[in-house]
Amino acid sequence: MKVLKWEFFAQFLWALPWCILINVSPYCLNKVIQYVECKDCGPPTIVQYLYVFGLLVSSLLESLCNQNALHIGRRIFVHTFSILNVEIFEKALRRKDMASPADKSEEEKANDKKKDGTLNIASEFSPYFNHLKCYSFDTALTRT
After folding, report:
1. What percent helix, strand, coil does the chain show, rounded to 5?
2. Deepest in the core among 59, 73, 81, 135, taking most CB within 10 A?
């Protein structure tokens, strides 16, 4: 999958901030609720306003990062699906052009099976690859 390495890298770059920002909104909300429940805190300071503003900004940025990562994942899916279609069509044309099946070596047959399986798995998996990155990061973050 050398063809798609930069697309996967771009998806990773959008998924990483999403993984971090997914935890900022609950943190800011927790701080706001703690302030509201506090009876002796007095009037709100600039910090409480920053937590409320942080709720808005983190939600917007989280949505932006998630949507871009998903968009890149869909583009990867379409690209791998088109590669898969080309490989299958090319294989079908080769079979049609061949006079006898004995001409094809065992090595070429093994390569065809390997290519088809790899591209099929990648085309099904790529749109959701960013979720795998994020949830493993979240799991590691909550375990520490």
Report:
1. 90, 0, 10
2. 73
Buried b (16+ CB within 10 A) or exposed e, 120-142: eebbeebbebbbebbeebeeeee
Residue 1, CB half-sphere, CA atoms under 13 Å: how many? 22
Task: Pick 25 or 131 by higher pLDDT.
Answer: 25
Residue with tokens 């990155």: 133
Residue 126 DSSP label: G
Q: What is the pTM of this model?
A: 0.61
Q: Which of 66, 55, 49, 51 is nearest to 134 (CA)?
A: 66
Task: Take residue 72 and report the two structure tokens written for it.
Answer: 């890149």
Cα angle 67, 68, 70 (rounded to 5 degrees) comes to 65
Chain centroid offset of residue 131 CA: 5
* Structure-block tokens of residue 123: 């085309």
Q: What is the pLDDT of residue 99?
A: 47
Q: Is the pLDDT of residue 142 over 70?
A: no
Q: What is the DSSP letter of 103?
A: G
Other Cβ atoms less than 10 A from the Cβ of 76: the count is 23
Ordered by start, the domain boundaries in the chain are 7-143
